[in-house]
């Protein structure tokens, strides 16, 4: 059996990775949402 030592540093690094991904996807969503909103407003005129 192989036991890997999972340190606080590793957990913290993983947490930072996930946070970065979440921020990236949130930024991407807001961009696409604003594009969609712009299209809606353009059609109304």
TrEMBL record:
Residues 36-45 have a biased composition (Basic residues). It comes from the Bacteria. Residues 23-45 are annotated as: Disordered. This is Uncharacterized protein.
């Amino acid at each position: 059996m192989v036991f890997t030592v999972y340190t606080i540093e590793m957990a913290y690094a993983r947490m930072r990775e996930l946070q970065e991904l979440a921020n990236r996807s949130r930024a991407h969503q807001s961009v696409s949402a604003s594009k969609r909103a712009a299209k809606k407003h353009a059609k109304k005129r």
